[in-house]
Amino acid sequence: MGVINQFIYTLLDKKNPDDRRPQDFVQLYIDVHADDAVAVTSGNIINMSSIFIQNYDGDVKWGFTSILYHEMTHVFQWLPSNAPDGLIEGMADYTMLKANYFPPGQAKPGDGDSWDQGDLLGKPIDQLWQEYKDKYKHNV
Ligand SMILES: [Zn+2]
Description:
Structural class: mainly alpha
Strand order of the largest sheet: 1-3-2
Radius of gyration: 17 Å
Strand content: 5-15%
Bound molecules: zinc ion
Helix content: 40-55%
Shape: globular
Largest sheet: 3 strands, mixed
Number of helices: 5
Pfam families: BSP (PF04450)
Protein name: NtPRp27-like protein
InterPro entries: Uncharacterised_BSP
């Protein structure tokens, strides 16, 4: 988990400890969930589904690690009450994808039919969308 911590700090530009959400430790529980959730994080507590792990179709270490990147991001995210859920989840997915964990069935670079289905950063939406589609013309 230390590797994941440092990856998140670097990716989210949290090199300065004063910028980080303070967490002295993280608790990880693997248990049966009543619903279909793969994992749920609250504060510094991650609850991962044993059913997800048991039924994972593929390299379970890979699947487990990919979920840890997502959930550990939640542990270190500042969570203002007005933050949209899509932003919170999007940051956690972004971390996972930047760590090269692309879940099966999730969009890969060049996929998508609209601007909010791809990896677009730092420029006006229209410009990003055009550059994105131009970059992957072979997939259009
Ligand atoms: Zn999440």
